[in-house]
From TrEMBL:
SUPFAM superfamilies on file: WD40 repeat-like
Region (Disordered): 1-34
Gene3D superfamilies the UniProt entry points to: YVTN repeat-like/Quinoprotein amine dehydrogenase
Organism name: Gymnopus androsaceus JB14
Name this protein carries in UniProt: Uncharacterized protein
Domain of life of the source: Eukaryota
Pfam families on file: WD40
Record carries keyword Transcription: no
WD repeat extents: 12-42
C-alpha cells in the first residue's frame, strides 16, 4: 500500500490557532489534538468535542 496525503474526512474544528499534535486513543474511539491556542481537545469518534483542557506553562 502506498502512503497518501489524501483527506479522508472532514477537518477537525474548534481550535483557535494552529494544531501541533493529533493522536488516536488505543481503541480508536477518541481523537486528542493540541494547539498553539494552548488547549487540548478530546473528541469522540463522531467528532463532537467532549472536553477542552487549557494548557498552563511557566517561563523563567
Amino acid at each position: 500500500m502506498q502512503p497518501t496525503s489524501a483527506q479522508i474526512g472532514e477537518p477537525l474544528e474548534g481550535h483557535e490557532d494552529s494544531v501541533r499534535s493529533v493522536t488516536f486513543s488505543p481503541d480508536g474511539t477518541r481523537i486528542v489534538s493540541g494547539s498553539d491556542d494552548k488547549t487540548i481537545r478530546l473528541r469522540n469518534q463522531h467528532e463532537s468535542v467532549q472536553g477542552i483542557v487549557p494548557i498552563c506553562s511557566v517561563h523563567n
